[in-house]
Predict the 3D structure of the following.
Amino acid sequence: MQDIIGQYTNTIHAAAKCKTPLFIRSGGSKDFYGNNINRDGHDILSAAAYTGIIDYDPTELVVTARAGTSLADLETELQKQNQMLGFEPPHFGPEATLGGCVASGLSGPRRVFVGATRDFVLGVRMLDGNGNNLHFGGQVMKNVAGYDISRLMTGSMGTLGLLLEVSIKVLPIPPIELTLRMQMKEAAAIEEMNQWAGKPLPISATCFYENNLTLRLSGAESAVRAARTKLGGELIPDGSAFWNSIREQTHTFFQSGSSLWRLSLKSNTPPLKLPGQQLIEWGGALRWLACSGEDVNTEESIVRSESSLADGNATLFRSNRKSESVFHPPGSQMIKIYQRIKEKFDPAGIFNPGRMYREL
Amino acid sequence: MHPLELVSNLRNFLPPDSVLYETEDLKPYECDGLSAYRQTPMIVVMPETEEEVIRILRVCHASKTPVVARGAGTGLSGGALPHAKGVLLSLTKLKKILEVDPITRTARVQPGVRNLAISESAMVYGLYYAPDPSSQIACSIGGNIAENSGGVHCLKYGLTVHNILRLRVITIEGECLEIGGACFDTPGYDLLALMTGSEGMLGIVTEITVKLLPKPEKAQVVMAAFDDIQKAGNAVANVIGAGIIPAGMEMMDKLATRAVEEYVHAGYNLEAEAILLCESDGTEEEVTDEIQRINEIMKKNSAVDIKTSNNETERLKFWAGRKAAFPAAGRISPDYYCMDGTIPRRNLARVLVGIEKLSIKYGLRCMNVFHAGDGNLHPLILYDANQPGELKKTEEFGAEILEMCIQVGGTITGEHGVGIEKINQMCSQFDAKELEIFHAVKSAFDPDRLLNPGKAVPSLRRCAEHGAMHVHQNQEKFPDLPRF
């Protein structure tokens, strides 16, 4: 495995010397995500070869694995010990890796109730733009030695360095999960989801679509049964298949437009009047919008301004068209800080240029 | 700039009593909770608004004056130790709770608000702010952000970094950054995480949006006594292995138990080598189930004595001892020095045996309290500062404990921060290239290094001079630096 790190380091040194872009890629399951950048003729740094679990002791609630480890394999190993990745990361394909999961920072349906990818990342080993092998954070849950570089790397879309190893906190699989569904109008559903979230109920996922509010309850059997009685609704027999279709976006909703927007908003934002269809997750805080309009510029300006008004942001998550600015534009102060950080980690500007913002 | 000229510049926009410079006025600010380190600041300023903070920082930036931020001053690592030629920026007057929103379960507060005051203001809605450092009646939320504070419930509910949504931060240049948002995620680099635990090195926080959680219906605690530390450690591992995430899981050794029992009369078993407190919270049904399972695990691990709290008074009584560990140390010793290393739990017995050996080596008593769920150790070294050389011996003892934490795969600080206290151990935990990254992050926010200079991240020169630097795997960490 040390040979592989040596090869990565040589590739980085060569690219840094010539200042040529290096596109980091493992399984490629999240190729669609981020800005559309022209990779023609440039080198791909394939990060998939550095694989395997390095340390996993279930009673420590921590797993450390190499970034190229298949996400599915990792989850299978955790499952054998009745544990899981609490943030339910979407795979978007069997080739998904741990590195891609952390670099994209995407979390699934359970996120709002237990935390996001960044909340579970405890430590990383990485190569920076100078090819330096660096280790930050650790394998323990409480660690305030030095700045939190592990979380800075999470969701940075490979623009700051190449992830080699990641330590992640894991959670026990809940003893029981039930899925309930109730008919409701959108405004009422948003209100209910917010009300319930303020009460000690074992809700672990919510989804509103086509006047149906679907809820998942997770936890001790007694608590889940009691909550079911309290909340009412119809019991859905294959709940896990439904939640998987939301997590992996195989649900028909996600196939319904030519552009899929992801709106992250204040959870109690009232129903938004936007072109296209919507599906709501995360207790009202995450709204997916599937559009098929012709006038993409108008669509973008409406979606972005409505999201800003709702104290949130919008990402063009998937689209048939090629966009070089899928993420909500940051303010000029913020981009200045981002640029300074990027410059320090990757002085030659080789890692995934433009994938997150044009300026980085 | 001459101090009096700076005072006059600051008094252009601050009332006279918000700018202190007379020696007797500066005295109360010379240390934080780590009183072994003292330094009188040049000037103390006490802004009441964000606008005043901006103007203070601009003045300091223009005159290249160091700025040290201070909250309630309860920090234990000397992070708020003043700079002799700097301004101490006290944020205690920024103490408004601006908004509590029960629908989105958030509160918007200023940095000087006390941690506990947030939960108190949210109580009417059945909500609370989860991180509960033991100093929560006094410590401020701004300080909690600076240190990424935890508490006894963080295994289940997370640290400060997991419980905040948005920060307003003023840079040393006096520019305002909105970091994070009212929503659950924002694109771009995770500056929210970078700011949390950054010990006042990157910017000054002027407003915080925290998450509030619904108060659990019920909480109950099991208190188990063991005749062997290893057995208690196994019980902890078994609880986690059984898929239980306790709301709190705390351990105390014999010396700690005896010290607190005399003080609070919590009913602890005085013969036990270790006392374990394991709390379950949640719905009525959940807690009943979990408490039963925890009891069984304690029995299986040969606990010699098991008690379960039957009501809230009893629960608080069981906890009172653990929460009084620090003052109890103060009662049995003129001084104590609190360490904060975190280790993978499986190494607990090994580390405690190591601490015992060090205790004999240095001839100093050490009582151990331990956030057992997340591996965060607080050895309290008991000493007498009036005995010549004893403080130095204590610091060496503490440093050896931290080195041991690094060796077993842990970290030198779990929740108290590096500050000035553990700055030398940073040289052992990180190599030169890693420290360079930290310096680079610092300079992205504060190119002139005016915010809290000399804290949290050691200079490479300091590491080279630090005698206790370790050579790992035969690789020297600072090969390019001259030795002294």
About this structure: The first strand of chain B starts at residue 19 and ends at 20.
